[in-house]
Amino acid sequence: MAMLFPGMDPFLEDPQLWPSLHTSMIVYIRDQLQPQLRPRYIATIEERVFVEGPDREVIPDVWIRERLEKSAAVGVAALEADAPEVVTIPSLEVHQRYIAIHYRKSDRPVVTLIELLSPSNKAAGPGRESYLMKQREVLRSPTHLVEVDLLRKGTHTVAVPLGAAKKRGPYQYLACVNRSLGSRAEYEIYRIQRDQRLPRVRIPLADDDPDVVLDLQAAFRHAGEQGEYEIDYSQPCIPPLSPEDQAWADDLIRQSRATPAVPPAPGTAPPPAQSPPPGSPP
């Protein structure tokens, strides 16, 4: 898949495409960090599980299987009781993946947690409740928290207060690092505009070990190129863009469709002129 945008491709925020992109990015982030963490640390992919109802519009990371909630048996106690209709509500068990950085050989706590937000984390429901519970738990622990939000739609979810982030200026996407130091009142944020490459984020480790660097753009580009997503850029973006952003996106898409002539390689002679066929006018 050709990458048309300088940073995040807003068309990949489509809930039909995001789960695959999310899974791939988690793997590529882990793979990118692993060589930088040796020999003291290791990055692992872990997951949290929650149950969604059948009427949810948000598609979470991975739909694993249906679970049928058994209703209580209804007995008839008296002849005058009417027979009820028994409705069985299916629910869906959802697994969401994240990255944990551990000491390679130790029973000490997780050093750093890296979360890539999904639509279900930003919409009211079990997915958001589960995420915020984990977020509060981490903020009360000695574990660093790194959150990456590449989704425009939904409620502000990363740990930095919304007002504090907006005071620094506008953004479409946001990354937030909260180190387990002191009162945890300090946040390192990366505000990401539509026309910017995704940032290189400093990932904290333990003790006096220097930060390692997560190149989000490299992970996103790898996931996008390997995913070969079939995107119809002639259709409106989902979630919708503002009129100004849609015009900007349309311009980039038009530019990508213009194929400039490729000049001959240096030192290469131009192709010989073809002789006109017999009987052609001179």
Report the structural category. alpha+beta
Mean pLDDT across all amino acids: 84
Choose one word for the global shape: globular
Q: What does the largest sheet look like?
A: 7 strands, mixed
Question: How does the SSE layout of this entry go?
Answer:
Blueprint: H1 18-37, E1 41-52, E2 63-68, E3 90-103, E4 112-116, H2 126-139, E5 144-149, H3 162-167, E6 173-178, E7 188-192, E8 200-203, E9 212-215, H4 216-227, H5 243-257
Parallel strand pairs: 4-5
Antiparallel strand pairs: 1-3, 2-3, 3-4, 5-6, 6-7, 8-9
Helix pairs in contact: 1-4
Describe, in plain words, how this protein is organized in 3D:
- This protein has 282 residues and is of the alpha+beta class.
- The chain has one domain (10-67, 88-256).
- It contains five helices and nine strands.
- The protein has helices at residues 18-37, 126-139, 162-167, 216-227, 243-257; strands at 41-52, 63-68, 90-103, 112-116, 144-149, 173-178, 188-192, 200-203, 212-215.
- Strands 1, 2, 3, 4, 5, 6 and 7 form a seven-stranded mixed beta sheet that branches.
- Strand 8 (200-203) and strand 9 form a beta hairpin.
- The protein is globular, with a radius of gyration of 26 Å.
